[in-house]
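Entry for the shared binder. Reason: the reviewer on the internal report wants the predicted structure included alongside the sequence.
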Amino acid sequence: MLQDTIAAISTAAQDGAISIVRMSGDEAISIAEKLFSRSLHDKDSHTVTYGYILDPITKERVDEVLVSLFRAPRTYTKEDIVEISCHGGRYITRLILQLVLSQGARLARPGEFTQRAFLNGRIDLTQAEAVNDMIQADTRENARLAMYGIRGSVKKLLDPLIKELLDMIANIEVNIDYPEYEDIEEITQEKLLPKANHWLLEIENILKKANSGQIIREGIKTAIIGRPNVGKSSLLNALLEEEKAIVTDIAGTTRDIVEGHIRLEGGLQLNLIDTAGIRDTQDIIEQKGIEKSYQIMEDAQLVILVLDGSAPLQEEDLRLLKDSENKTRIIVYNKSDITDKHLEGIQISAANQEIQPLLDEIHRLFDEHRIAAKEPSLANERQIALMRKAYSCMQHAIDAMQSGLELELADIDLQEAYTALKEILGEVHREDLLDTLFTNFCLGK
């Protein structure tokens, strides 16, 4: 499959000043020569040549272009690459792509250029994923995290762990295979356990940083909960600075979830969900909304529990205080503008947009993640899941050693941990997994 030459439009599919049609493969240069007004045969790598794209049949000038030539192996895909920079009209760009395809190139699948870079050993799988992360980055923080990945930060994190695992595996297997050699150090559970526990601690630290990175990259899943009429929807509107949710004095107005997103100073993003007010009700539709509220609270990374600061606590308030006590939560007393009571805790007036104490508390709880995310870490669920698998395998190995079982049994778990780490980098992989991963890329990348 890598023998053919692929082509695609690498710029956005819209009118603009410049568009780029990219080719990669053994025939990229010869195909370009068939369409270009000047010879590329003797051009050096990493050079740009001015000329015209010509219709191969009529020899009519199609467009005035710049052709960039990159010779293998010093290219993105480690294959010959040609990029035709043309005027950015959609018609002319597609016409040039059609001419390229007519001369023997094949239309690239989404992400196929980066897939070839991976398959040809130019980058590892985590770097390939980071390329897509950079394309999709919508904040400075996300772009910085993506750049860590592009520079191979995950590989640098994993290489020492892989080496330590190999050392442990090798020591066990030498003792198993060559017990008669007296000059080989005998490996026992007592000697291996400290190394295994240290390795496990390193994995724990990496997973903690990965959690921080995910929070910065994806935002904090935040549920606003409370009984009816405490001001949940008003708080959502105040945070978003828009009338997103309907606000009335009628209990049970919010029956379904209302969502919004806000980016706070310093890069923290809240993925807000305003839930139905929780109370006893005979209304079937409202009951469904309340059930959904509890599910959202269970899944949330942050719970903002809103209480009415102008009224005594009610049975529903006490129930929610108990139901949310094991969650990361912030308890806020709303309606501070209509009460003179002194309350222990955070007081706000959502209706008057006076919510700074709540924002300060959010920063206090989550700024540590923003700081931790400035260091390289795992970048996505695939990588984290495999790291957790490696952690679990090592834990099983440690349990086996502590139980006095034969080291051969621990060795099986160590090898599974090793395979999981190699799979993160793509050095062990399945073809169907690769196809799924690269399908998420845009065309031309």
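Summary line for the report: Confidence is low (pLDDT under 50) at residues 244-256.
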